[in-house]
């Protein structure tokens, strides 16, 4: 199943304007809270109506402002799972899942499908339980089962793991990945967690302030996020404003150092480097740095470094294994910022 979305919607001072396509893949909408991710899903599901534009799923037009088409949520055959799962509190697990199978008119066939889905989700023993008697993970499985018995054309997951602790989240990610594989159609996943979308998605659309700033295969988006917001959302913590000082030379104002970079463009106003790409010893952009602080993580060390002579600047973070830090630990270190690891970034496209 394919989906094509090109819509606009204004809510007070907020303006949503998104355009993207996906085809039999998991596409993640990655962005901070309030950027329009959930609103986009609600527009696709028919809960919210765009001001203008078009939404097409597998050749069927769900919404078209020019043609005056706006199918009801029931007519769209879209499966949307909310953050809070939206289970009916006065219904048992079995009754909740049955509500998703109403499109099937044959009672015997409907009941067989409900039982089949319950078995596959490990919910048969919980059939008579009510939502308040279930754990967060069990509630999520019930919500997914209820959606899948409706045989949706497309699956929309709105922050599906946000209410779960880290251990349960990781385990349920495995279950949901299995569900997505068996579903075999297009899935849209909304999240603000870069690790989550990298594990779950095939492609990523980076959203900021109601717009999509970058979209593509996940490895490509992480390698070249393109914008400051994209870099931040994909986990880059070292970012500095730049001033051009020559051909492929910039001054990183927030770090207080001059750098050689690859393929400098007029649009680039920031430079970034991921903490694990900072290197000790010889290499490009070699700089003597003072160690400002050493932060011990459970399985690594983050070393905050300030270039020698660059007082009152933002430290550069270097993340490395604890054993490697033991070899280098000192008050001063020569650090390299490899040109091939530097990210040249545009500022906020919506500014």
Question: Could you describe the 3D structure shown?
Answer:
This protein has 351 residues and is of the alpha+beta class. Helix content is 26%, strand content 34%. The protein has helices at 37-45, 73-76, 93-99, 107-120, 136-148, 166-183, 194-200, 218-223, 228-233, 322-328, and strands at residues 2-11, 14-23, 26-30, 52-57, 60-64, 69-70, 78-81, 154-158, 187-191, 203-208, 211-217, 238-246, 249-252, 257-260, 270-273, 279-280, 287-296, 301-307, 316-320, 332-336, 343-345. The strands form 4 sheets. The chain has a 6-stranded mixed β-sheet, with helices on both faces. A 5-stranded antiparallel β-sheet has the order 2-1-4-5-6, with helices on one face. The chain is elongated, with a radius of gyration of 24 Å. The mean pLDDT is 93.
Question: Which terms would index this structure?
Answer:
about 350 residues; alpha+beta; 10 helices; six-stranded mixed beta sheet; 21 strands; single chain; five-stranded antiparallel beta sheet
Instruction: Give the CA-CA distance, first to last residue.
Output: 35 Å
Q: Tell how many strands the DSSP assignment holds.
A: 21
Structure class:
alpha+beta
The biggest sheet, with number of strands, parallel, antiparallel or mixed sense and barrel status, is: 6 strands, mixed
Rg on CA atoms, Å? 24 Å
The best one-word shape is elongated
How much is the average pLDDT? 93
SS field, number of helical segments? 10
In what order do the strands lie side by side in the largest sheet?
7-8-9-3-10-11
Q: How much helix, percentage-wise, in residues?
A: 25-40%
Spans where pLDDT lies below 50 across 5 or more residues: none
Work out the strand percent: 25-35%
């Amino acid at each position: 199943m394919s989906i094509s979305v090109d819509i606009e919607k204004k809510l007070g001072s907020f303006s949503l304007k998104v355009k993207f396509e996906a085809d039999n893949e998991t596409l993640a909408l990655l962005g901070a809270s309030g950027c329009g991710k959930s609103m986009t899903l609600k527009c696709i599901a028919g809960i919210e109506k765009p001001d203008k534009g078009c939404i097409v799923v597998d050749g069927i037009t769900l919404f078209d402002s020019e043609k005056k088409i706006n199918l009801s949520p029931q007519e769209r055959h879209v499966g949307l799972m909310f953050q809070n799962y939206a289970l009916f509190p006065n219904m048992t697990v079995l009754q909740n899942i049955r509500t998703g199978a109403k499109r099937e008119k044959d009672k015997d066939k409907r009941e067989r499908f409900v039982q089949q889905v319950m078995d596959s989700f490990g919910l048969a023993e919980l059939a008579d339980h009510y939502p308040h008697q279930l754990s967060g993970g069990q509630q999520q499985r019930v919500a997914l089962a209820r959606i899948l018995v409706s045989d949706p054309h497309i699956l929309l997951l709105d922050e599906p793991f946000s209410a779960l602790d880290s251990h349960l989240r990781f385990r349920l990610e495995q279950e949901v990945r299995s569900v997505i594989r068996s579903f075999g159609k297009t899935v849209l996943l909304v999240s603000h967690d870069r690790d989550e979308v990298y594990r779950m998605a095939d492609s990523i659309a980076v959203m900021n302030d109601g717009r999509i700033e970058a979209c593509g295969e996940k490895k490509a988006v992480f390698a070249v996020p393109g914008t400051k917001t994209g870099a931040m959302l994909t986990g880059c913590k070292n970012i500095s404003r730049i001033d051009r000082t020559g051909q492929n030379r910039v001054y990183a104002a927030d770090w207080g150092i001059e750098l050689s970079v690859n393929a400098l463009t007029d649009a680039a106003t920031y430079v970034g480097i991921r903490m694990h790409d900072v290197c000790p010893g010889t290499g490009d952009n070699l700089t003597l740095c003072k160690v400002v602080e050493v932060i011990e993580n459970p399985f690594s060390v983050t070393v905050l470094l300030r270039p020698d002579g660059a007082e009152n600047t933002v430290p550069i973070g270097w993340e490395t294994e604890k054993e490697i830090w033991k070899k280098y630990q000192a008050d001063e270190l020569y650090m390299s910022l490899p040109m091939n690891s530097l990210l040249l970034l545009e500022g906020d496209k919506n500014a």
